[in-house]
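We were asked to recover a plausible sequence for a given structure. The inputs and outputs are reproduced exactly as logged, with field labels preserved.

PROBLEM: sequence recovery
POSITIONS: 354
GIVEN STRUCTURE:
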């Protein structure tokens, strides 16, 4: 079943330049699209492929529309429009209601008839599921876990006791929510005493968490993942961390305990955050950046890694690094003064006399 370009334009707020009745039923790349495919142009690196595309239509920005050889859906945000239209043309499979006979449920569990419970699922005491929840094979929910409507847990997700997960979330394979935070008190002789992790985790609505990401439970208060947050694969979120709404974080980022990340932040891969710091709203952190202190103002920040070095020398070099701009200005000033002192044919001050 296809959809006409005219209907897509109305639904997604695009300007249609072409035939309203033309039907598309799938998406494809610029290079591989055919006369039933819809494609998009959002990255200038692929602009050279536009002239030769055989797509039924292209989603693109107004600046590119004049060079499009086929029908066009014109919008200021072509990638966003593509994402929404692709979801319409290729919808995720809905739940297949029912409970697999190998699933195990404790007392007091609430499972609406619209839910899909896969093979080998284990539900602890007092688990509460919303409508149309999907639990993939071998998913484990501890006691008193709650999961909001239309949330999907892929195979092999583990959610510890007391965690609350909102509506319309997606948790991918290997995600662990609510494991103990890294809390130990060091005794004088060097041994460690485990600090009880008594809080839980609260995950908001419309959150997506990538494969093998771990979110630790709070030590006393809860760890909080705000509405609309998107976490990539293999991220570590420490205990009592708070992540603001609609923040996106790329793979292999580590966030130490009690750090607060603001709303609408964008964090590159392999970034690292020290504990107990605060990052303001609308901050962009470059990949590989180590954030060791609070960031109080919105903006773009980058650091990148430096090779391992002896700690005292590394600290001195990092202190000097912050002074490089001022040192460069002073060097330029000194060079100008020296140039002004030297006239053609004269001997620079301090030079050996003949």
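RECOVERED SEQUENCE:
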């Amino acid at each position: 079943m296809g959809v006409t370009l005219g209907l897509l334009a109305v639904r997604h707020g695009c300007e249609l330049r072409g035939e309203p009745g033309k039907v598309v039923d799938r998406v494809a790349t610029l290079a591989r699209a055919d006369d039933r495919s819809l494609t998009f142009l959002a990255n200038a690196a692929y602009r050279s492929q536009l002239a030769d595309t055989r797509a039924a239509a292209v989603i693109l920005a107004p600046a590119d529309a004049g060079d499009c050889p086929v029908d066009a859906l014109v919008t200021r945000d072509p990638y966003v429009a593509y994402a929404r239209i692709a979801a319409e043309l290729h919808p995720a499979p809905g739940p297949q209601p029912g409970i697999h006979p190998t699933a195990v449920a404790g007392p007091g569990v609430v499972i609406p008839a619209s839910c899909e419970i896969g093979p080998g699922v284990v539900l602890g005491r007092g688990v509460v599921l919303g409508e149309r929840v999907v639990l993939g094979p071998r998913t484990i929910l501890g006691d008193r876990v709650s999961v909001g409507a239309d949330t999907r847990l892929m195979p092999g997700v583990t959610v510890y006791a007391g965690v609350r997960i909102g509506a319309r979330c997606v948790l991918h394979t290997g995600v662990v929510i609510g494991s103990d935070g890294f809390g130990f008190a060091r005794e004088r002789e060097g041994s460690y005493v485990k600090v009880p992790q008594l809080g839980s985790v609260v995950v908001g609505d419309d959150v997506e968490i990538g494969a093998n990401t771990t979110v630790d439970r709070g030590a006393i208060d809860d760890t909080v993942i705000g509405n609309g947050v998107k976490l990539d694969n293999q991220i570590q979120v420490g205990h009592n961390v708070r992540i603001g709404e609609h923040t996106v974080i790329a793979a292999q980022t580590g966030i130490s305990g009690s750090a607060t990340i603001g709303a609408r932040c964008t964090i590159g891969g392999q970034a690292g955050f020290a504990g107990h710091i605060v990052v303001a709203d609308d901050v962009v952190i470059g990949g590989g950046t180590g954030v060791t202190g609070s960031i109080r103002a919105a903006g773009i920040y980058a650091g990148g890694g430096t090779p391992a070095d002896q700690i005292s020398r590394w600290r001195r070099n990092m202190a000097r690094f912050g002074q490089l701009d001022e040192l460069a200005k002073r060097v330029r000033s000194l060079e100008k003064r020296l140039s002004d002192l030297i006239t053609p044919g004269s001997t620079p001050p301090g030079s050996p006399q003949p």
